[in-house]
Amino acid sequence: DERRPLLDGETVEESEYAMAPSWAARNQWIVLALASGGCAAFNGVFAKLTTTELTTSLSQAIARFLGLSSIEGGIELVTRAIFFGLNLVFNGVMWALFTKALTRGNSTTQVSIINTSSNFVLTAMLGFVIFSEALPPLWWLGAAMLVAGNVITGRKDEGNKSGDETAIEG
């Protein structure tokens, strides 16, 4: 057991502890999975805005505001194209974040649980705010059951993983 003093009286063990990743660095996958689920929700919003009548109303309002009422159809086409482009962008960002979360996380199941749960909740909130969609209690019950099932599956996955590690170490 060799303890060499470093700067200001630190020992080797203390400096190694200081170099250990912080809690935030170790759990960065959670933020990535939440962001991935959020991007998936926005992807759905923009996909719906590409085809809904709400976009027609929005583009007509934009045309009137800009004094371009004579080309409302063109403004609508451009607005729908922008929403379609945002749909593709958010889809790509979602997959990039999800893949990064999978590589940094300990369990693909846990990453999927966080991603799916955040996607469900944010989709419901955005649907209510943007499209005035009121979801019935049965939808919330189903969503809660899906989240609960994911959590149970995730805990089972955690239990198997910790059991396998002790078997290898022992």
TrEMBL record:
Stretches that traverse the bilayer: 29-49, 77-99, 111-131
Keywords from the UniProt entry: Membrane, Transmembrane, Transmembrane helix
Record flagged with keyword Transmembrane: yes
UniProt KW Transmembrane helix keyword: yes
Domain of life: Eukaryota
InterPro entries in UniProt: EmrE-like, TMEM42
Name the record gives this protein: EamA domain-containing protein
Species annotation: Immersiella caudata
